[in-house]
Amino acid sequence: MNDTILITGGAGFIGSNFILQWLRSEAASVVNLDKLTYAGNPRNLSSVERHPRYVFVRGDICDAALISDVLDQHRPRAIVHFAAESHVDRSIKGPAEFIRTNIEGTFGLLECVRAYWGNLSPADRERFRFLHISTDEVYGTLTPTEPPFSETTAYAPNSPYSASKAASDHLVRAYHHTYGLPTLTTNCSNNYGPFQFPEKLIPLMIHNALQGNPLPVYGDGQNVRDWLYVEDHCDAIREVLAKGRPGETYNVGGNSERKNIDVVRTICEILDEVVASSPGVPHGQLITYVKDRPGHDRRYAISAEKLRAELGWVPKTRFEDGIRRTVLWYLENEAWVRDVVSGEYQHWVDLQYGGARD
Ligand code: NAD
Ligand code: TYD
Fold it and tell me: Is 5-195+227-255+296-317+343-353 in CATH node 3.40.50.720?
């Protein structure tokens, strides 16, 4: 075993931010195994393509032969498992891929890792970590006054996405309890920041607003999410990987509960200020209430108190700063956006919103 870490799904939103941060902050090499679905974009990592400590392998986590080869060849001391189908609306329109990647893929990966780990020396077995990246959505929904989710909140997933993530969390837990695999799980709230695919709320609204297109707010816009700037999430993952206790789960949250409508209004206000020449000014006039998402969870809020008390992690970025930075990033990276909204994206927009938006 050497010092390398293996990332799955590193060409997606959080994974690519994680790899960029890792290469800036840590000394060990990274192998990124990614299938490059619609959500995976090698452009996110173009700045490190030729980095001496970065290796990319295109592949599917369901491909056991490939995973075993990668483990044998690179001998990683840890795996950080990001790869997943991640968009709730897509899971409602077509759950099958979520079951395949999130449940069967995690299971296949765990099986390969169990075999690899079982053949390590006792000292290496002790040092090895499997870090599973999950979501707060496994806990279901909160009323406006309920306390935030903690690590002991009962699982109650409500969408095919969250149910598939819950299943994968249970598998990871079982591999620790049954086989002793040194696993860690993080359950994080909604992330935002650079490189997020514009199917998710924040980049979708920025993109539509810049095009002068409607800003589709589901239902009454009063649903609440707890927003975390992606760099803070990546910091938390590095802390948990370095110091987390095997078998434990850690909740990660931004302490920034916001109603969807307020998030959208904030984006509009920033755009009014920084792109006064945009066709949509004032951008708030583009807000359009649309049919609600089926089974739409009302509120997520997460207590990251365990992570603070045990590992000293707290989110550093205020929502007001992070959202401004994110809007500016999308403005400065027009070519990245143009690239990702070509092709398959248009098909998704038509299917979900019933008409062209670009
Ligand atoms: P994403 O959809 O942007 O990226 C997913 C990546 O996984 C893509 O690069 C894709 O190509 C890859 N992938 C998908 N199926 C694969 C397969 N079968 N084999 C190999 N690679 C595959 O997702 P994200 O937003 O970066 O989320 C990453 C992880 O974090 C997911 O597990 C998600 O559940 C979790 N999470 C996300 C959020 C959030 O707000 N985005 C919050 C909490 C947890
Ligand atoms: P999303 O970014 O899809 O994350 P999640 O469903 O995992 O929380 O959505 C965030 C919130 O924004 C959620 O309450 C649904 C809402 N939303 C809209 O109102 N309109 C949209 O077009 C999208 C994509 C989301």
Answer: yes
